[in-house]
Amino acid sequence: MSQNTRRILVFSTNYLPYIGGAELALKEIMERLSGIQFDVITSRLDKSLSEKETFQNINLYRVGSSWFLKNIFLPKNFYPLSAFAKAIGLARKNKYSAMLALQASQGAGAAWLFKFLHPKMPFILNIQEGKNLGQQGFLINFFRKLILKKADIITVISSYLRDYVSKINSKAKLFVIPNGVNLEKFKNLEHKTNNQDKTIITVSRLVEKNGVEDLIDAFHILNTKYNIQNTRLMIIGDGPLKEALKIKILNLKLESKVTLLGSIANEDLPKYLTQADVFARPSLSEGLGTAFLEAMAAGLPVVGTARGGIVDFLKDKETGLVCEAENPDDLAQKLSLILSNSNLYESIVKNARKLIEEKYDWNIITKQYEEIINSYTRI
């Protein structure tokens, strides 16, 4: 590696192959910043995984015993110490321009410790939390605030998170940079040709905050109250509510209309989106809502709540439809509206796609990260 290349030490509790939306975003950013070397320290959750792997400009280091992490209570809470020890070893061999932590969680805990040894090294913290931050427990909030106060540069994915962070650390350089969409995945898509069926789709982890139960209730109302024929609901995702949702679907006699598809590979998402007419997710809280952005990129109108980061991109009757949270009747009414009004449908699809291309393209977002790194770190 050239001596003129920046090298950044990254702390991420999870990474390949155990990745969610935040880790996918980190991967997109690092791979696109090919002129920077990234050394990523993550937890080794499976003994079959190598302790070190290299992907282009990314060195991946897995630390901790997989048995220890999986079988002892509070599994990942021991990761900060092993990651901290690994970081000390790497810092003896390499000169780092900055440290970067994904989320104010266990990985950032290791960065917090490392910052005490290297107080002059810029600490960049990326915040993507989607839960209702005000309703989390005392200990979680206590440790999150400790980490936030230690960071020099904080990037958040929505104005909702900006407002939260600014109350805790007013001294840090704070930037709102959303997650993005890989527009190459959504080029030249062939949409469904069967215009008789009206298909609603959601992509969501099956947890309470994503409002999937409300969506099923709204779908039931759509079928019983509104004159929308041949409706279907596709639910993509997995999670602890799966069995409860199966029971709800049976109780409402919707088993012939609602399909629980489980988790799918991220690269397969576009082909599922093109089989649908509208995307809906009545979230109770949301850090940003990348699933909405991907649906918009695929040419679907979206229906969502004005919660968390969703308000940054969802403008009622302009880039989508806004429904009330925890109100299946209102959601059903909005679904009926978008499925029966072709002019509104086409207008929303056009406006949403334009917004994605102008603001949420990963190439645009990566340049914003590159500017921050170049401005606040040294080679």
From TrEMBL:
Occurrences of domain Glycosyltransferase subfamily 4-like N-terminal (ranges): 19-185
GO molecular function: glycosyltransferase activity
Name this polypeptide is given: Glycosyl transferase family 1 domain-containing protein
Domain Glycosyl transferase family residue range list: 191-354
Domain of life: Bacteria
